[in-house]
Amino acid sequence: MADRIIGVFNRCFADPNGLNTRLCGGFPEPYYRPAAMKKGVHQVEFTLDYAASALHEVAHWCVAGEARRLLPDYGYWYEADGRSREQQAEFELVEVKPQALEWVFARACGFRFRVSADNLKSGLGPSDTFKKAIWEQVQDYCAQGPNARARTFALALAEEFECPDPLDKDAYQLVELS
Q1: Which helix (H) or strand (E) holds 2?
Q2: Which of 14-18, 80-84, 112-116, 150-154 has the lowest average pLDDT?
Q3: Are strands 21-27 and 42-47 parallel, antiparallel or unpaired?
Q4: Which long-range contacts (CB under 8 A, 24 or more apart) does 62-67 make?
Q5: Using H for helix, E for strand and C for coil, what is the string for 128-168?
């Protein structure tokens, strides 16, 4: 499945006259390398061959604005596994939009979405508040439309995987995140 996701992304965004960005798997950790680091090509890297990692990293790329896409790993803050409750709350605030897009992308390719708290060592799973915020953001993306990159990718995935419209708000239920 990851190879098909890579193919869809690269068909949509690898054009050197466009966004000149490629999606690549096989890495021990996800990372974003702007063109200045990668000989003129922006590269979204995801973990091993995990489809969920690919979709999540593309979601971060879609959320990142033009200035952030010029910075290594978008210049984002990241605290490794083992975060405190306060750090986990901050993590959840910044992860709502990417995880909401990841859910849309997962739906577009018929893949089950799982909310990630990304904090296994501390034993803190995703809060109910976080889950509700993700669902509400998906509802907003469906009603208002996500940005052009996210929309292009979601619709291209749905076509590739022969899935229904991933921007149908009725396809998303909060209970799915339990």
Answers
A1: helix 2-13
A2: 80-84
A3: parallel
A4: 62/98, 62/101, 62/146, 62/147, 62/149, 62/150, 62/153, 63/97, 63/98, 63/101, 64/32
A5: HHHHHHHHHHHHHHHHHCCCHHHHHHHHHHHHHCCCCCCCC
